[in-house]
Amino acid sequence: QLQASGGGLVEPGGSLKLSCATSGFTLDSYAVGWFRQVPDEARKVVSSVISNGATYYTNSVKGRFTISRDLAQNTVYLQMNSLKPEDTAVYYCAAGRYIGSSSWDLGSLYDYWGQGTLVTVSS
Description:
It is a single chain. This protein has about 120 residues and is mainly beta. It is about 0% helix and about 45% strand. The protein has strands at about 1-5, 10, 15-20, 30-35, 45-50, 55, 65-70, 75-80, 90-95, 110-115, 115-120. Strands 2, 4, 5, 6, 9, 10 and 11 form a 7-stranded mixed β-sheet that branches. Strands 1-3-8-7 form a 4-stranded antiparallel β-sheet, with no helix packed on it. The N and C termini lie far apart (about 35 Å). The mean pLDDT is about 95.
């Protein structure tokens, strides 16, 4: 199971930290990714941390977002800084076992999904 939290309303330039609490598997065996979706658009990958701890980001968030994980707490975080209005979306976390450096951005490989948390960036 995965449970995302931490969304909210923030002004442009502000920060938010999302959390994805996981259970039923270990983070050193599964990749956990963050995805986001806006109405009438497909869900898109934002970032992922794969089982060996390597991290990946989509270009639009590089340098602004940081993904991390706490193995003891079975939790993955997404620190989002310098937020822009275009970051507004419902954010989801998802987990998959057979995901590596060449497949981290393939949503179809993530088997388990949490509920979304809404991030709104607006003044």
